[in-house]
């Protein structure tokens, strides 16, 4: 079977406007859904076949125990179970284009359909006194669900690669006030894995051209009253509406009706950013869709279970990497004069200073030159780093690339000054420049890693660094910490964005 998806051709340019044929999206989505269906069939039939073979010791077909006078073998049971499983997966919309390829809704529907199937089987078995081998179901359920999830994850990886190559994209027209439209268009462009390609924007008539002057930016195709004309000109598959005062509920409803006739999706952004899905609840109030946002739970990031996890994790890591620490210490010592470790004063939770431990990666007394470098290079004191820093040693450059110089920070975790995951550790000059919003970073302990580590590291702008740190503080959960630790391994291994 070929794994190339149809309809993933290049974007055409007509009169300076990028145009994508909407039938291409339908083509690649249909092909992708077919691939998912094949993977689901393999996972489900493989699970029930494995369950029957393992439970009954081979390719045998024992009869089902039930009160009816005629005999039904487990091969028939397996076939019926597989078909019912696949029917529920389809009925729950686990392969609809709106949910596949991104987010957690796809997996929620997989789990819901599977649990519903086995719940119905349990009820039927109880009502009709059918004795289904428990071992058979105990194998089929987890094996099938694991196979379904693994298949979806594999296709997500493949889809992400295609999208990074500019294929399998949904062309989107962004509508909204200049600032909001610019933010949304930039977010889509900076995250190609989301699957959206911005083909143009529509902004209020008096704002046309104010925010989109760069050659690399999206084309302004009109104002927010000429959206339908812009859709026809650009061939957009979707319209994303950002915050705007010019489109009220009535206008949005009429726009949805008109776009439906064209086969174009309507996406409405709620106007909030950096809010974790766990804090969002969709509700219908008086016939109007509402997005309820739970308040930030700053106290959760200070919980005792996080502290216990931090201490245990740091202790285990230090035991495992002890030989590596010894080798790095020797390399630092013999290649440049000075101490092995560098103790830097950082500001911890609630503004309390502490001494952060790192392997020395610079020449001795390098700190004395930092103020002059900031003034000379015009750097931002809130987040000052330069590539090809002359103060960094040869060994230090290697250590920084793979974040090996930061390994001793696990000792700070044991001492209670830092967490395994948290905001980026700050120096005093950075804290001195904080405003009220930025000071939220000090509500929790700084981390050895965090959102900043897996989102670009030193390549991040000061604004993005602050935004990610505040997002972590507001949205903390144990699951988020574990996910960031896993992502850190990949970011550090690649060595991207570190200097």
Automatic annotation (TrEMBL):
TM stretches of this protein: 32-54, 74-92, 113-130, 136-155, 308-332
EC id: 2.7.8.-
Membrane topology classification: Multi-pass membrane protein
Keywords for this protein: Membrane, Transferase, Transmembrane, Transmembrane helix
Presence of keyword Flavoprotein: no
Pfam families listed in its UniProt record: Bac_transf, CoA_binding_3
Main location: membrane
Domain Bacterial sugar transferase residues, every copy: 306-493
Coiled coil location: none
Gene Ontology terms, MF aspect: transferase activity
Localization of this protein: Membrane
Gene3D superfamilies on file: NAD(P)-binding Rossmann-like Domain (3.40.50.720)
PANTHER family: COLANIC BIOSYNTHESIS UDP-GLUCOSE LIPID CARRIER TRANSFERASE, SLL5057 PROTEIN
Family indicated by similarity: Belongs to the bacterial sugar transferase family.
Cross-referenced NCBIfam families: EPS_sugtrans (TIGR03025)
Name assigned to this protein: Sugar transferase
Organism: Nocardia lasii
Phylogenetic lineage: Bacteria, Bacillati, Actinomycetota, Actinomycetes, Mycobacteriales
């Amino acid at each position: 079977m070929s794994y190339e998806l149809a309809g993933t051709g290049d974007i055409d340019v007509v009169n300076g406007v990028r145009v994508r044929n909407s039938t291409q999206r339908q083509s690649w989505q249909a092909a992708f859904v077919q691939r998912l269906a094949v993977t689901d069939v393999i996972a489900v039939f493989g699970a029930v076949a494995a369950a029957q073979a393992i439970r009954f010791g081979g390719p045998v077909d024992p009869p089902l125990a039930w009160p009816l006078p005629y005999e039904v073998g487990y091969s028939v049971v397996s076939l019926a179970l597989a078909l019912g499983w696949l029917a529920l997966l389809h009925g729950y919309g686990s392969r609809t284009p709106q949910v596949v390829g991104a987010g957690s809704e796809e997996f929620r529907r997989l789990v819901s359909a599977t649990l519903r199937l086995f719940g119905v089987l349990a009820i039927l078995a109880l009502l009709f006194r059918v004795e289904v081998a428990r071992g058979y179901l105990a194998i089929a359920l987890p094996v099938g669900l694991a196979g379904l999830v693994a298949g979806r994850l594999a296709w997500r990886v493949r889809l992400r690669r295609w999208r990074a190559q500019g294929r399998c994209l949904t062309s989107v027209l962004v509508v909204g006030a200049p600032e909001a439209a610019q933010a949304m268009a930039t977010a889509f462009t900076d995250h190609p894995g989301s699957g959206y390609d911005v083909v143009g924007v529509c902004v209020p008539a008096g704002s046309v051209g104010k925010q989109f002057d760069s050659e690399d930016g999206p084309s302004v195709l009109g104002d927010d009253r000429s959206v339908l004309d812009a859709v026809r000109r650009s061939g957009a598959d979707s319209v994303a509406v950002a915050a705007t005062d010019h489109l009220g509920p009535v206008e949005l409803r009429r726009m949805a009706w008109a776009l439906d006739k064209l086969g174009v999706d309507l996406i409405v952004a709620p106007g909030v950013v950096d809010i974790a899905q766990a804090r969002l609840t969709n509700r219908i109030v008086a016939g109007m869709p509402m997005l309820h946002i739970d308040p930030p739970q700053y106290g959760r990031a200070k919980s005792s279970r996080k502290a216990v996890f931090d201490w245990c994790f740091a202790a285990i890591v230090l035991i495992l990497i002890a030989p590596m620490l010894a080798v790095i210490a020797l390399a630092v010592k013999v290649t440049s004069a000075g101490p092995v470790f560098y103790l830097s004063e950082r500001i911890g939770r609630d503004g309390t200073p502490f001494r952060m431990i790192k392997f020395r990666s610079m020449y001795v007394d390098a700190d004395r030159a930092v103020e002059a470098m900031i003034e000379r290079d015009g750097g931002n004191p809130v987040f000052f780093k330069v590539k090809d820093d002359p103060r960094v040693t040869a060994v230090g450059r290697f250590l920084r690339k793979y974040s090996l110089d930061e390994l001793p920070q696990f000792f700070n975790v044991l001492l209670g000054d830092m967490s395994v995951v948290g905001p980026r550790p700050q120096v005093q000059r950075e804290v001195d420049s904080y405003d009220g919003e930025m000071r939220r970073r000090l509500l929790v302990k700084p981390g050895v890693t965090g959102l900043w580590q897996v989102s670009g590291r030193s390549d991040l702008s000061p604004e993005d660094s602050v935004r990610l740190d505040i997002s972590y503080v507001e949205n903390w959960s144990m699951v988020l910490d574990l996910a960031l630790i896993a992502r850190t391994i990949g970011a550090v291994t690649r060595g991207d964005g570190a200097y």
